[in-house]
Amino acid sequence: MPDSEHFSHNELECHCGCGSNAMDLNFLEMLEDLRAMVDRPLQLSSAYRCPEHNDTVSSTGRTGPHTTGQAVDILAYGELAYDIVTVARLVGFTGIGVKQRGHFGGRFIHLDNLAVPDFNRPRIWSY
Known about the structure:
The chain has about 130 residues and is α+β, with helices and mostly antiparallel strands. It has a single domain, classed as 2-Layer Sandwich (Muramoyl-pentapeptide Carboxypeptidase, domain 2). The protein has four helices and five strands; from the N terminus they run ααβαβαβββ. It has helices at about 10, 25-40, 50-55, 80-90; strands at about 45, 70-75, 95-100, 110, 125. It has a five-stranded mixed β-sheet, covered by helices on one side. It is globular, with a radius of gyration of 14 Å. The relative contact order is 0.16.
């Protein structure tokens, strides 16, 4: 997977050490559109996750949205978090998760672009 304009291969790969990076190219273009519209750097805490790693860190198990290459978690709070959520809706992300409790370094916005027939999309939720 090549680097995108604003996100490196290392940022986008699985953090378990396996080096896997299967980010969806359409999703990555949406992420770049979001970055351009927000006009500020975005720090990813998680992007692609291999099924094994996702199973250890997420309740979504081996098939969660990060395993499809169509999900990221962006470290953000306050005005930046608000701007990300606002722009993400305009860009067309279909899943927006908001974690804004706890210490500031652990606050994030989850974005995904899944077409899951079992859930109504678009949707927003809090952690």
